[in-house]
Design brief:
14 helices; globular
Length: 389
């Protein structure tokens, strides 16, 4: 969805997060997230230092501790990879590496501890987040908003130049990979091959389908044509919104969650386009807003019929739980935004966080990596022409 001259730079930022976060997770990240609690705020960094005792440690529920650690690593990897979508086409590569390190240590790991550790701040409040609505999506969405504000607008955005997506078929393929991979995220969070995993699998798939259709037909209702991008974006929003709720809500509720999240995120995207906010790939409207909607819908629609280990939501006569989810969401939003904003500002003090105007014009593939992406040539009216997108 970025310009052709920035495809490689955008892709490598997502992939390099896997390398950086994996090393951090082994050294200290897993300890910060799931180590012995220090006041409910963060884990003791020495608990699993360099994965000490992870292979021989006691089982985490029904699975080996080492398997749980690797499963949680996948969540930690994807989160900073989401943020790059908001600052694509202008963030310096080395500055992004610094962001990954600081975000993983000071935003993601503490928030994971608050939410999923038995002694964590949000966990003890009674906040429910089945697979990462706060930890992954709200944190990434708010970091995306902070990054867009600090890095400011791209030159093409200031000049109101329309930059068409470089390769929409790749967007379709990517959406399919995300949709399939999300089953591992959400169903896997049941930590077993059981009825709860199947329920989470079903609600995940249904919410994605409902959201994709809702986004597409909401566009039609507003005078647009049904688009490939519209369905793909809507499906991802549905996957985001169902993430905190997947193991707590019924199948009919998942349809409602997907549809509501798609419409709200669609409206936020439309609002954003009227402002000077340059969130390149709409990470805040999709992941931030989608995560917020999902957390609140969990407070509304959760039922112990689906998961006896959970609680009933507002619709089932428990307004206190809805307020708990609201408080937890506000805490996560505030913490993620403030900390991420500080991190981006600190990085900019160490080195320029943004590429120069000349480097931006040349494209980050060439200016940052000395590489270029080419799809060859196009044949127009029987003649070869340069493929500019």
């Amino acid at each position: 969805m970025v310009h052709r001259k920035n495809i490689l730079s955008t892709m490598i930022k997502s992939v390099v997060a896997a390398g950086v976060v994996t090393v951090l997770w082994v050294v200290v990240g897993f300890s910060l997230a799931f180590g012995e609690s220090i006041g409910g705020f963060v884990g003791d960094p020495t608990t699993f230092f360099f994965f000490k005792g992870v292979n021989s440690g006691p089982a985490w529920g029904t699975i080996p501790l080492s398997l749980f650690a690797v499963f949680q690593l996948m969540f930690a990897i994807i989160t900073p990879g989401l943020v790059v979508g908001a600052v694509a086409e202008r963030i310096r590569f080395t500055s992004y590496i610094l962001f990954i390190v600081l975000f993983a240590l000071f935003v993601y790991s503490p928030l994971a501890h608050w939410t999923w550790s038995a002694d964590g701040l949000l966990f003890k409040m009674g906040v429910l987040d089945f697979a990462g609505g706060t930890v992954v999506h709200i944190s990434a969405g708010m970091a995306a908003l902070a990054g867009a504000l600090v890095l400011k607008r791209r030159k093409s955005h200031i000049e109101h130049k329309e930059v068409p997506p470089a390769n929409i078929p790749y967007v379709l393929i990517g959406t399919g990979l995300l949709w399939f991979g999300w089953f591992g995220f959400n169903a896997g969070s049941a930590l077993g091959a059981n009825a709860l995993a199947v329920s989470a699998f079903l609600t995940t798939n249904i919410a994605a389908g409902a959201a994709g259709l809702s986004w597409m037909f909401f566009d039609v209702a507003r005078g647009k044509k049904p688009s490939v991008l519209g369905f793909c974006i809507g499906a991802v929003v549905g996957l985001v919104a169902i993430t905190p709720a997947a193991g707590f809500v019924s199948i009919p509720s998942s349809i409602f969650i997907g549809a509501v999240a798609a419409v709200i995120s669609n409206l936020v995207v439309a609002w954003k386009q009227k402002t000077s906010l340059d969130d390149t790939l709409d990470v805040f409207p999709c992941h931030g807003v989608g995560g917020i909607v999902g957390m609140l819908m969990t407070g509304l629609l959760a039922t112990k019929t689906v998961n006896p280990a959970g609680v009933d939501g507002l619709l089932y006569g428990n307004p206190e739980f809805f307020l708990t989810q609201l408080k937890g969401m506000v805490i996560a939003v505030t913490f993620s935004f403030v900390m991420s904003f500080i991190i981006f500002k600190l990085i900019n003090l160490v080195q320029p966080i943004r590429v120069s105007e000349e480097e931006e014009e040349e494209g980050l593939d060439a200016s940052q990596h000395n590489e270029k992406y080419s799809q060859g040539t196009l044949i127009v009216a029987g003649q070869e022409v340069e493929n500019t997108f």
